[in-house]
Amino acid sequence: MSKLLLTEPLGVMQLSAICKKRRWQTRLAALNKHDLVKAVKEFDPQILAYNTLTADESLFLTADSKVREWLKRNNRSLLRIMGGPHPTYFPEILDKCDLDAVCVGEGDHAMETILARVEEGAELDGIPNILTEQNRHWQKEVAGDLDSLPYMDRAVYYEAAPHLKRIGLRSFLTSRGCPYGCTYCFNNAFNKMFRGCGPILRRRSVEHVIGEIKYVQKYFPPLQMVRFADDTFAHKVDDWLIEFLGRYKKEIGLPFYCLMRSNTLSEDMAKLLRESGCISLAMAVESGNERVRNEVLKRNLSDAMVIRSFENARKYGLKTFGNTMLALPGTTLSDDWQSVVFAKKLKLTVPTFGIFCPFPRTELAQYATDHGLLNEKNTLDLGYGRKSVLNCYTEKEKDVQLRLAYLASIFCALPDFFLPVLKRLVNYNLTRLYSLLGSLFVVSATAIHIFRPVISFNPLKIMRIALDYWKYQKQT
Fold first, then answer.
1. Phi, psi at residue 221, to the nearest 5°?
2. At what angle do helices 431-445 and 395-412 cross, to 10 degrees?
3. For the structural domain made of 167-475, what CATH number should be given?
4. Which residues contact 139 (CB under 8 A, 6 or more apart)?
5. 372-400 residues labelled b (16+ CB within 10 A) or e (exposed)
6. Regarding the domain delimited by 10-131, which CATH topology (the fold level of the hierarchy) does it fall under?
Protein backbone atom coordinates (compact mmCIF):
# COMPACT_ATOMS: atom_id res chain seq x y z
CA MET A 1 0.00 0.00 0.00
CA SER A 2 1.33 3.44 -0.95
CA LYS A 3 0.28 6.73 -2.50
CA LEU A 4 -0.30 6.55 -6.25
CA LEU A 5 2.01 8.84 -8.22
CA LEU A 6 2.48 9.59 -11.92
CA THR A 7 5.97 8.06 -11.78
CA GLU A 8 6.21 4.43 -10.76
CA PRO A 9 6.79 3.59 -7.06
CA LEU A 10 10.03 1.77 -7.79
CA GLY A 11 10.64 0.48 -4.26
CA VAL A 12 7.16 -1.03 -4.05
CA MET A 13 7.54 -2.59 -7.48
CA GLN A 14 10.87 -4.12 -6.48
CA LEU A 15 9.40 -5.71 -3.37
CA SER A 16 6.41 -7.00 -5.33
CA ALA A 17 8.81 -8.67 -7.77
CA ILE A 18 10.58 -10.36 -4.87
CA CYS A 19 7.24 -11.64 -3.58
CA LYS A 20 6.21 -13.00 -6.95
CA LYS A 21 9.58 -14.69 -7.36
CA ARG A 22 8.60 -16.76 -4.30
CA ARG A 23 5.19 -17.39 -5.90
CA TRP A 24 3.25 -15.02 -3.68
CA GLN A 25 0.42 -12.95 -5.16
CA THR A 26 0.48 -9.17 -4.67
CA ARG A 27 -1.87 -6.26 -5.12
CA LEU A 28 -1.22 -2.53 -4.82
CA ALA A 29 -3.73 -0.31 -3.04
CA ALA A 30 -3.19 3.46 -3.09
CA LEU A 31 -4.37 5.79 -0.35
CA ASN A 32 -5.44 8.48 -2.80
CA LYS A 33 -7.38 6.05 -4.99
CA HIS A 34 -8.55 2.93 -3.14
CA ASP A 35 -10.56 1.99 -0.05
CA LEU A 36 -8.05 -0.06 1.94
CA VAL A 37 -10.64 -2.01 3.93
CA LYS A 38 -12.41 -2.97 0.73
CA ALA A 39 -9.08 -4.04 -0.82
CA VAL A 40 -8.30 -6.22 2.22
CA LYS A 41 -11.75 -7.82 2.04
CA GLU A 42 -11.40 -8.62 -1.65
CA PHE A 43 -7.77 -9.74 -1.72
CA ASP A 44 -7.66 -11.42 1.70
CA PRO A 45 -3.88 -11.01 2.16
CA GLN A 46 -1.64 -12.69 4.71
CA ILE A 47 0.59 -9.63 4.87
CA LEU A 48 -0.33 -5.95 4.65
CA ALA A 49 2.79 -3.92 3.83
CA TYR A 50 2.74 -0.13 4.05
CA ASN A 51 5.19 2.09 2.12
CA THR A 52 5.16 5.39 3.98
CA LEU A 53 6.57 8.88 3.55
CA THR A 54 6.86 11.05 6.64
CA ALA A 55 4.46 13.67 5.32
CA ASP A 56 1.82 10.95 4.85
CA GLU A 57 1.92 9.56 8.39
CA SER A 58 -1.54 10.81 9.38
CA LEU A 59 -3.09 9.33 6.23
CA PHE A 60 -1.62 5.92 7.00
CA LEU A 61 -2.63 6.07 10.66
CA THR A 62 -6.22 6.76 9.62
CA ALA A 63 -6.29 4.01 6.99
CA ASP A 64 -4.64 1.48 9.31
CA SER A 65 -7.04 2.21 12.16
CA LYS A 66 -9.98 1.38 9.87
CA VAL A 67 -8.32 -1.90 8.87
CA ARG A 68 -7.70 -2.82 12.51
CA GLU A 69 -11.32 -2.06 13.40
CA TRP A 70 -12.53 -4.28 10.56
CA LEU A 71 -10.17 -7.10 11.55
CA LYS A 72 -11.35 -6.92 15.15
CA ARG A 73 -15.05 -6.92 14.22
CA ASN A 74 -14.56 -9.92 11.97
CA ASN A 75 -12.21 -11.83 14.27
CA ARG A 76 -9.51 -11.77 11.57
CA SER A 77 -5.78 -11.19 11.70
CA LEU A 78 -2.96 -10.47 9.28
CA LEU A 79 0.66 -9.42 9.50
CA ARG A 80 1.02 -5.63 9.29
CA ILE A 81 4.46 -4.25 8.34
CA MET A 82 5.59 -0.73 7.48
CA GLY A 83 8.59 0.19 5.34
CA GLY A 84 9.81 3.20 3.42
CA PRO A 85 11.41 6.47 4.51
CA HIS A 86 9.12 7.13 7.50
CA PRO A 87 9.82 4.02 9.61
CA THR A 88 13.49 4.22 8.62
CA TYR A 89 13.84 7.53 10.44
CA PHE A 90 10.90 7.13 12.84
CA PRO A 91 10.99 3.47 13.94
CA GLU A 92 8.82 4.41 16.92
CA ILE A 93 5.89 4.14 14.50
CA LEU A 94 6.09 0.43 15.42
CA ASP A 95 4.45 1.22 18.77
CA LYS A 96 2.42 4.20 17.64
CA CYS A 97 0.64 2.06 15.06
CA ASP A 98 0.90 -1.22 17.01
CA LEU A 99 2.49 -2.87 13.98
CA ASP A 100 3.94 -6.38 13.84
CA ALA A 101 7.19 -5.08 12.37
CA VAL A 102 8.84 -2.14 10.65
CA CYS A 103 11.61 -2.19 8.06
CA VAL A 104 14.43 0.28 8.65
CA GLY A 105 16.36 0.95 5.44
CA GLU A 106 16.31 -1.31 2.39
CA GLY A 107 13.87 -4.19 2.51
CA ASP A 108 14.90 -6.38 -0.43
CA HIS A 109 16.56 -9.18 1.55
CA ALA A 110 14.29 -8.61 4.54
CA MET A 111 11.15 -9.17 2.46
CA GLU A 112 12.39 -12.48 1.13
CA THR A 113 13.20 -13.64 4.67
CA ILE A 114 9.84 -12.45 5.99
CA LEU A 115 8.03 -14.50 3.35
CA ALA A 116 10.07 -17.57 4.24
CA ARG A 117 9.31 -17.11 7.96
CA VAL A 118 5.58 -16.74 7.28
CA GLU A 119 5.62 -19.87 5.13
CA GLU A 120 7.30 -21.73 8.00
CA GLY A 121 5.05 -20.22 10.68
CA ALA A 122 8.14 -18.77 12.38
CA GLU A 123 8.69 -15.45 14.20
CA LEU A 124 10.19 -12.40 12.49
CA ASP A 125 12.90 -11.75 15.08
CA GLY A 126 16.53 -11.55 13.99
CA ILE A 127 15.91 -10.43 10.39
CA PRO A 128 18.35 -7.70 9.27
CA ASN A 129 16.69 -4.25 9.00
CA ILE A 130 13.54 -5.52 10.75
CA LEU A 131 12.32 -4.27 14.12
CA THR A 132 9.63 -6.09 16.09
CA GLU A 133 8.23 -5.63 19.57
CA GLN A 134 10.57 -8.35 20.83
CA ASN A 135 13.60 -7.36 18.72
CA ARG A 136 14.65 -3.70 19.10
CA HIS A 137 18.39 -4.32 18.56
CA TRP A 138 18.49 -4.88 14.84
CA GLN A 139 21.26 -5.87 12.46
CA LYS A 140 21.84 -3.40 9.62
CA GLU A 141 22.48 -4.24 5.98
CA VAL A 142 22.33 -2.77 2.49
CA ALA A 143 21.76 -4.76 -0.67
CA GLY A 144 25.19 -5.31 -2.21
CA ASP A 145 24.59 -7.22 -5.45
CA LEU A 146 21.82 -5.32 -7.23
CA ASP A 147 21.98 -7.72 -10.18
CA SER A 148 20.66 -10.47 -7.90
CA LEU A 149 17.33 -8.66 -7.58
CA PRO A 150 14.54 -9.46 -10.05
CA TYR A 151 13.30 -6.87 -12.52
CA MET A 152 10.71 -4.58 -10.97
CA ASP A 153 7.09 -5.74 -11.08
CA ARG A 154 5.32 -3.18 -13.25
CA ALA A 155 2.18 -5.28 -13.59
CA VAL A 156 1.15 -4.58 -9.99
CA TYR A 157 1.37 -0.82 -10.68
CA TYR A 158 -0.59 -0.87 -13.90
CA GLU A 159 -3.26 -3.09 -12.37
CA ALA A 160 -3.79 -0.33 -9.80
CA ALA A 161 -3.61 2.47 -12.39
CA PRO A 162 -4.29 1.07 -15.88
CA HIS A 163 -4.71 4.55 -17.42
CA LEU A 164 -1.06 5.35 -16.65
CA LYS A 165 0.15 2.44 -18.78
CA ARG A 166 -0.82 4.41 -21.87
CA ILE A 167 1.80 7.05 -21.05
CA GLY A 168 4.95 5.80 -22.76
CA LEU A 169 7.35 6.81 -19.97
CA ARG A 170 9.01 4.12 -17.86
CA SER A 171 11.43 4.66 -14.97
CA PHE A 172 14.57 2.66 -14.23
CA LEU A 173 17.31 2.67 -11.59
CA THR A 174 20.88 1.97 -12.62
CA SER A 175 22.25 2.45 -9.11
CA ARG A 176 21.45 3.06 -5.45
CA GLY A 177 22.86 5.51 -2.97
CA CYS A 178 23.89 9.15 -2.91
CA PRO A 179 27.37 10.21 -1.75
CA TYR A 180 26.51 13.85 -1.11
CA GLY A 181 25.82 15.46 2.26
CA CYS A 182 22.96 17.88 1.55
CA THR A 183 21.52 18.89 4.93
CA TYR A 184 17.85 18.91 3.88
CA CYS A 185 17.87 15.37 2.48
CA PHE A 186 17.25 11.98 4.10
CA ASN A 187 20.10 10.47 2.07
CA ASN A 188 22.62 12.15 4.34
CA ALA A 189 20.96 10.64 7.42
CA PHE A 190 20.74 7.25 5.69
CA ASN A 191 24.46 7.27 4.92
CA LYS A 192 25.30 7.94 8.56
CA MET A 193 22.89 5.24 9.75
CA PHE A 194 24.29 2.53 7.48
CA ARG A 195 27.94 3.54 7.52
CA GLY A 196 30.14 0.45 7.67
CA CYS A 197 27.54 -1.86 6.11
CA GLY A 198 29.17 -1.82 2.69
CA PRO A 199 29.34 0.69 -0.18
CA ILE A 200 26.58 3.27 -0.08
CA LEU A 201 26.85 3.97 -3.82
CA ARG A 202 26.17 0.76 -5.76
CA ARG A 203 25.68 0.16 -9.48
CA ARG A 204 23.95 -2.51 -11.48
CA SER A 205 25.84 -4.07 -14.34
CA VAL A 206 25.36 -2.65 -17.81
CA GLU A 207 23.92 -5.99 -18.98
CA HIS A 208 21.33 -6.07 -16.18
CA VAL A 209 20.01 -2.57 -16.86
CA ILE A 210 19.90 -3.01 -20.64
CA GLY A 211 18.16 -6.35 -20.10
CA GLU A 212 15.44 -4.77 -17.96
CA ILE A 213 14.79 -2.00 -20.49
CA LYS A 214 14.39 -4.59 -23.26
CA TYR A 215 12.10 -6.64 -21.01
CA VAL A 216 9.88 -3.60 -20.42
CA GLN A 217 9.87 -2.79 -24.13
CA LYS A 218 8.53 -6.27 -24.83
CA TYR A 219 6.05 -6.78 -21.99
CA PHE A 220 4.96 -3.26 -20.97
CA PRO A 221 4.57 -1.22 -24.14
CA PRO A 222 4.45 1.49 -25.21
CA LEU A 223 7.96 2.57 -24.22
CA GLN A 224 8.65 5.89 -25.92
CA MET A 225 10.97 7.54 -23.40
CA VAL A 226 13.15 6.32 -20.52
CA ARG A 227 13.46 8.08 -17.18
CA PHE A 228 16.56 7.22 -15.15
CA ALA A 229 15.48 7.84 -11.57
CA ASP A 230 18.86 7.60 -9.83
CA ASP A 231 19.49 10.46 -7.38
CA THR A 232 22.42 11.35 -9.66
CA PHE A 233 22.55 9.36 -12.89
CA ALA A 234 26.27 9.84 -13.53
CA HIS A 235 29.00 11.21 -11.27
CA LYS A 236 31.79 11.21 -13.86
CA VAL A 237 32.58 9.97 -17.35
CA ASP A 238 33.94 6.52 -16.52
CA ASP A 239 34.18 3.10 -18.18
CA TRP A 240 30.73 2.01 -16.90
CA LEU A 241 29.03 5.10 -18.29
CA ILE A 242 30.77 4.92 -21.65
CA GLU A 243 29.86 1.25 -22.06
CA PHE A 244 26.30 1.75 -20.88
CA LEU A 245 25.51 4.77 -23.04
CA GLY A 246 27.16 3.13 -26.05
CA ARG A 247 24.95 0.06 -25.70
CA TYR A 248 21.89 2.15 -24.86
CA LYS A 249 22.26 4.20 -28.03
CA LYS A 250 22.79 1.10 -30.17
CA GLU A 251 20.32 -1.34 -28.61
CA ILE A 252 17.57 0.90 -27.16
CA GLY A 253 17.82 4.15 -29.10
CA LEU A 254 15.08 6.00 -27.22
CA PRO A 255 15.18 9.54 -25.81
CA PHE A 256 15.85 9.64 -22.09
CA TYR A 257 15.67 11.91 -19.07
CA CYS A 258 17.91 11.75 -16.00
CA LEU A 259 18.80 13.53 -12.78
CA MET A 260 22.15 15.28 -12.57
CA ARG A 261 24.08 17.64 -10.30
CA SER A 262 25.96 20.79 -11.30
CA ASN A 263 29.34 19.37 -10.30
CA THR A 264 28.79 16.34 -12.57
CA LEU A 265 27.49 18.05 -15.72
CA SER A 266 30.80 18.99 -17.31
CA GLU A 267 30.90 19.83 -21.00
CA ASP A 268 32.22 16.33 -21.78
CA MET A 269 29.36 14.82 -19.77
CA ALA A 270 26.72 16.98 -21.47
CA LYS A 271 28.08 16.09 -24.91
CA LEU A 272 28.12 12.36 -24.13
CA LEU A 273 24.60 12.40 -22.71
CA ARG A 274 23.21 14.26 -25.71
CA GLU A 275 24.91 11.99 -28.23
CA SER A 276 23.47 8.96 -26.44
CA GLY A 277 19.85 10.10 -26.54
CA CYS A 278 19.39 12.36 -23.49
CA ILE A 279 16.98 15.18 -24.32
CA SER A 280 16.20 16.55 -20.86
CA LEU A 281 17.43 16.40 -17.29
CA ALA A 282 16.68 17.60 -13.78
CA MET A 283 19.35 19.60 -11.99
CA ALA A 284 18.41 21.38 -8.76
CA VAL A 285 19.43 24.94 -7.89
CA GLU A 286 18.08 24.91 -4.30
CA SER A 287 19.35 28.43 -3.47
CA GLY A 288 20.51 31.42 -5.48
CA ASN A 289 22.70 32.59 -2.61
CA GLU A 290 26.12 30.92 -2.69
CA ARG A 291 26.63 31.23 1.07
CA VAL A 292 23.26 29.64 1.82
CA ARG A 293 23.80 26.94 -0.81
CA ASN A 294 27.11 25.88 0.67
CA GLU A 295 27.06 26.79 4.37
CA VAL A 296 23.41 26.00 5.11
CA LEU A 297 22.56 23.35 2.51
CA LYS A 298 26.13 21.99 2.14
CA ARG A 299 25.73 21.59 -1.60
CA ASN A 300 29.39 22.53 -2.22
CA LEU A 301 28.52 24.23 -5.50
CA SER A 302 29.82 27.68 -6.37
CA ASP A 303 27.76 30.14 -8.39
CA ALA A 304 30.27 29.76 -11.23
CA MET A 305 29.90 25.97 -11.25
CA VAL A 306 26.10 26.15 -11.25
CA ILE A 307 26.07 28.72 -14.05
CA ARG A 308 28.55 26.69 -16.11
CA SER A 309 26.54 23.47 -15.75
CA PHE A 310 23.38 25.07 -17.15
CA GLU A 311 25.43 26.66 -19.94
CA ASN A 312 26.74 23.16 -20.79
CA ALA A 313 23.17 21.87 -20.92
CA ARG A 314 22.05 24.65 -23.25
CA LYS A 315 25.10 24.25 -25.49
CA TYR A 316 24.13 20.64 -26.23
CA GLY A 317 20.39 21.21 -26.44
CA LEU A 318 19.49 19.53 -23.15
CA LYS A 319 16.23 20.85 -21.67
CA THR A 320 16.50 21.49 -17.93
CA PHE A 321 14.09 21.09 -15.03
CA GLY A 322 15.21 22.35 -11.63
CA ASN A 323 13.84 23.32 -8.24
CA THR A 324 14.78 26.19 -5.94
CA MET A 325 13.78 26.30 -2.27
CA LEU A 326 12.42 29.40 -0.58
CA ALA A 327 12.07 30.12 3.16
CA LEU A 328 15.25 28.32 4.19
CA PRO A 329 16.48 28.52 7.81
CA GLY A 330 18.67 31.55 8.42
CA THR A 331 17.47 33.41 5.32
CA THR A 332 15.26 36.40 4.66
CA LEU A 333 12.66 37.32 2.10
CA SER A 334 15.42 39.24 0.34
CA ASP A 335 17.33 35.97 -0.07
CA ASP A 336 14.23 34.42 -1.64
CA TRP A 337 14.08 37.22 -4.21
CA GLN A 338 17.78 36.68 -4.90
CA SER A 339 17.10 32.98 -5.52
CA VAL A 340 14.36 33.79 -8.04
CA VAL A 341 16.60 36.25 -9.90
CA PHE A 342 19.48 33.74 -9.93
CA ALA A 343 17.25 30.94 -11.25
CA LYS A 344 15.99 33.28 -13.95
CA LYS A 345 19.60 34.05 -14.91
CA LEU A 346 20.30 30.33 -15.33
CA LYS A 347 17.60 30.11 -18.03
CA LEU A 348 16.18 26.78 -16.91
CA THR A 349 13.67 25.37 -19.34
CA VAL A 350 11.29 24.58 -16.47
CA PRO A 351 12.21 26.31 -13.20
CA THR A 352 10.14 25.32 -10.17
CA PHE A 353 10.04 26.80 -6.68
CA GLY A 354 8.88 25.36 -3.37
CA ILE A 355 8.79 26.19 0.32
CA PHE A 356 11.45 24.45 2.42
CA CYS A 357 10.04 21.38 4.21
CA PRO A 358 11.97 20.64 7.44
CA PHE A 359 11.82 16.86 7.30
CA PRO A 360 12.43 15.65 10.84
CA ARG A 361 15.79 14.09 11.69
CA THR A 362 17.51 15.66 8.74
CA GLU A 363 20.48 17.85 9.60
CA LEU A 364 18.77 21.05 8.46
CA ALA A 365 15.57 20.40 10.43
CA GLN A 366 17.70 19.79 13.52
CA TYR A 367 19.58 23.02 12.83
CA ALA A 368 16.29 24.92 12.64
CA THR A 369 15.08 23.34 15.89
CA ASP A 370 18.36 23.99 17.73
CA HIS A 371 18.28 27.66 16.70
CA GLY A 372 14.68 28.16 17.82
CA LEU A 373 13.36 28.54 14.28
CA LEU A 374 11.13 25.48 14.39
CA ASN A 375 8.72 24.13 16.94
CA GLU A 376 9.16 20.34 17.00
CA LYS A 377 5.39 19.76 16.97
CA ASN A 378 5.31 21.39 13.49
CA THR A 379 7.91 19.12 11.95
CA LEU A 380 5.32 16.72 10.54
CA ASP A 381 3.09 19.50 9.22
CA LEU A 382 4.71 19.24 5.82
CA GLY A 383 3.63 19.67 2.25
CA TYR A 384 4.81 21.11 -1.04
CA GLY A 385 1.96 23.59 -1.28
CA ARG A 386 1.97 24.95 2.28
CA LYS A 387 3.37 28.03 3.96
CA SER A 388 6.63 27.86 5.86
CA VAL A 389 6.44 26.37 9.36
CA LEU A 390 9.52 28.31 10.51
CA ASN A 391 8.86 31.01 13.09
CA CYS A 392 11.50 33.43 11.77
CA TYR A 393 9.02 34.86 9.26
CA THR A 394 5.92 36.95 9.82
CA GLU A 395 2.60 35.62 8.54
CA LYS A 396 2.68 38.25 5.80
CA GLU A 397 6.15 37.11 4.71
CA LYS A 398 4.98 33.48 4.65
CA ASP A 399 2.07 34.44 2.40
CA VAL A 400 4.42 36.35 0.08
CA GLN A 401 6.84 33.41 -0.07
CA LEU A 402 4.07 30.99 -1.01
CA ARG A 403 2.71 33.28 -3.73
CA LEU A 404 6.25 33.82 -4.98
CA ALA A 405 6.76 30.05 -5.20
CA TYR A 406 3.65 29.75 -7.35
CA LEU A 407 4.33 32.70 -9.68
CA ALA A 408 8.12 32.68 -10.03
CA SER A 409 8.13 29.88 -12.63
CA ILE A 410 5.97 31.99 -14.93
CA PHE A 411 8.00 35.17 -14.47
CA CYS A 412 11.29 33.36 -15.13
CA ALA A 413 9.99 32.90 -18.67
CA LEU A 414 9.22 36.61 -19.09
CA PRO A 415 11.63 39.51 -19.80
CA ASP A 416 13.36 41.09 -16.80
CA PHE A 417 11.21 44.23 -16.90
CA PHE A 418 8.26 42.11 -15.64
CA LEU A 419 9.96 41.48 -12.26
CA PRO A 420 8.48 44.66 -10.68
CA VAL A 421 5.05 43.29 -11.64
CA LEU A 422 5.84 40.07 -9.76
CA LYS A 423 6.83 42.08 -6.68
CA ARG A 424 3.42 43.75 -6.73
CA LEU A 425 1.38 40.63 -7.43
CA VAL A 426 2.74 38.65 -4.47
CA ASN A 427 1.18 41.20 -2.11
CA TYR A 428 -2.36 40.44 -3.28
CA ASN A 429 -4.38 37.76 -1.51
CA LEU A 430 -4.91 35.63 -4.62
CA THR A 431 -3.00 32.56 -3.47
CA ARG A 432 -5.38 29.93 -4.83
CA LEU A 433 -5.46 31.60 -8.24
CA TYR A 434 -1.67 31.85 -8.32
CA SER A 435 -1.42 28.19 -7.31
CA LEU A 436 -3.65 27.14 -10.21
CA LEU A 437 -1.81 29.34 -12.73
CA GLY A 438 1.57 28.11 -11.52
CA SER A 439 0.48 24.48 -11.74
CA LEU A 440 -0.84 24.98 -15.27
CA PHE A 441 2.39 26.65 -16.37
CA VAL A 442 4.71 24.03 -14.84
CA VAL A 443 2.72 21.08 -16.15
CA SER A 444 2.45 22.60 -19.64
CA ALA A 445 6.15 23.48 -19.80
CA THR A 446 7.12 20.04 -18.50
CA ALA A 447 4.91 18.32 -21.07
CA ILE A 448 6.16 20.46 -23.95
CA HIS A 449 9.87 20.49 -23.16
CA ILE A 450 10.86 17.77 -20.69
CA PHE A 451 8.68 14.80 -21.65
CA ARG A 452 7.55 15.85 -25.12
CA PRO A 453 7.98 12.37 -26.71
CA VAL A 454 5.33 10.87 -24.41
CA ILE A 455 2.84 13.68 -23.84
CA SER A 456 1.08 15.07 -26.89
CA PHE A 457 0.24 18.75 -26.58
CA ASN A 458 -3.49 18.53 -26.08
CA PRO A 459 -4.70 21.64 -24.19
CA LEU A 460 -7.58 19.79 -22.52
CA LYS A 461 -5.32 16.92 -21.47
CA ILE A 462 -2.70 19.36 -20.15
CA MET A 463 -5.40 21.19 -18.18
CA ARG A 464 -6.60 17.92 -16.67
CA ILE A 465 -3.07 16.92 -15.62
CA ALA A 466 -2.50 20.40 -14.19
CA LEU A 467 -5.68 20.18 -12.14
CA ASP A 468 -4.63 16.75 -10.81
CA TYR A 469 -1.22 18.19 -9.93
CA TRP A 470 -2.86 21.17 -8.22
CA LYS A 471 -5.15 18.90 -6.20
CA TYR A 472 -2.17 16.74 -5.22
CA GLN A 473 -0.39 19.86 -3.93
CA LYS A 474 -3.39 20.69 -1.80
CA GLN A 475 -3.40 17.16 -0.31
CA THR A 476 0.29 17.13 0.64
1. -75, 165
2. 30
3. 3.80.30.20
4. 126, 128, 129
5. ebbeeebbbebbbbbbbbbebbeeebbbb
6. Rossmann fold (3.40.50)
Q: What is the pLDDT of residues 307-343, one digit of tens each?
A: 999 999 999 999 999 999 999 999 999 999 999 999 9
DSSP letter for each residue of 9-47: -HHHHHHHHHHHHTT------BTTT--HHHHHHHH--SE
Residues 45-77: tens digit of each pLDDT: 999 999 998 888 888 999 999 999 999 999 999
Task: Tell me how far apart the alpha carbons of residues 56 and 2 are, in angstroms, rounded to a whole number.
Answer: 10
**Cα pseudo-dihedral 391, 397, 398, 399, rounded to 10:** 150
Which parts of 121-256 fold into alpha helices (H)? 155-160, 186-193, 206-219, 239-247
CA distance 243 to 22: 33
* Spatial distance between the Cα atoms of 333 and 327, rounded to a whole number of angstroms: 7
Cα-based distances in Å from 224 to 166, 196, 312: 10, 40, 26
Cα separations in angstroms, 39 against 31, 36, 52, 242: 11, 5, 18, 46
The closest alpha carbon to 143, from 280, 11, 6, belongs to 11
Domain ranges of the chain: 10-131, 167-475
Measured distance CA(428)–CA(183) in Å, rounded = 33
Using DSSP's 3-state secondary structure scheme, residue 253 falls into coil
Half-sphere CA count of 267, side-chain side, radius 13 A: 3
DSSP assignment of 100-145 equals: SEEE-S--HHHHHHHHHHHHHT---TT-TTEE-SS--SPPP-----
Distance CA 257, CA 251 (A): 17
Tell me whether residue 73 is exposed, middle or buried, using C-beta atoms within 10 angstroms of its C-beta: 0 to 12, 13 to 18, 19 or more: exposed
> Which CA distances in Å does 442 have to 283, 363, 391, 463?
16, 30, 29, 11
pLDDT digits (tens, 9 = 90+) for 397-406: 999 999 999 9
